[in-house]
């Protein structure tokens, strides 16, 4: 894999994006693989703790056992969000490489320029991740339209555990990917000041 296509962020690459450099496939296929791996975990979970493979009882969403289709979409959504983030960082690295002849930084300034463009602040990412993940979990608990009885069946119910964990993970990764994209886009747009 070319160095220009590696995902390098400062102060460090979030662990979920490191996977995209380790697997030598396009981000699209890695994202699909992530989504399908989560779906396989869901099938194993429902076989062990649910009403059978791909079936969770206790929700209004699943009156005829078709919850697995909605689950597959949710799982692929998570893989897609990570894939878009990885492809975006790689694309920005390629774009920066193409702009270097016009910016003409010295060797000493090149590292500073890369840190300026591909740097992000960790605290906002952490806060956004927690706020959206906890918020989505609260909505899952409090939304009576999700649950067959109008309220969550209990914290130890297999359906509740899966939905809370899955929604938490989805919104943790998606919100962080969106904010990282905004941070890097803002940094990249400042390159125009150098031209």
Provide structural commentary.
The protein has 195 residues and is mostly helical. It contains six helices and no strands. It has helices spanning 15-22, 27-49, 67-103, 107-117, 122-142, 158-189. Helix 2 packs antiparallel against helix 3 (67-103), helix 3 packs parallel to helix 6 (158-189) and helix 5 runs antiparallel to helix 6. The two termini are 30 Å apart.
What is the percentage of strand-forming residues?
Answer: under 5%
- Could you give the distance between the termini? 30 Å
Mean pLDDT: 88
Count every helix, treating DSSP H or I runs of 4 or more residues as helices. 6
- Runs in which pLDDT lies below 50 for 5 or more consecutive residues are none
Tally of extended strands?
0
What class, by secondary structure content? mainly alpha
Gyration radius, to the nearest Å? 20 Å
* SSE string, helices as H and strands as E: HHHHHH
> Helical proportion?
55-70%
Main sheet characteristics? none
Shape verdict:
elongated
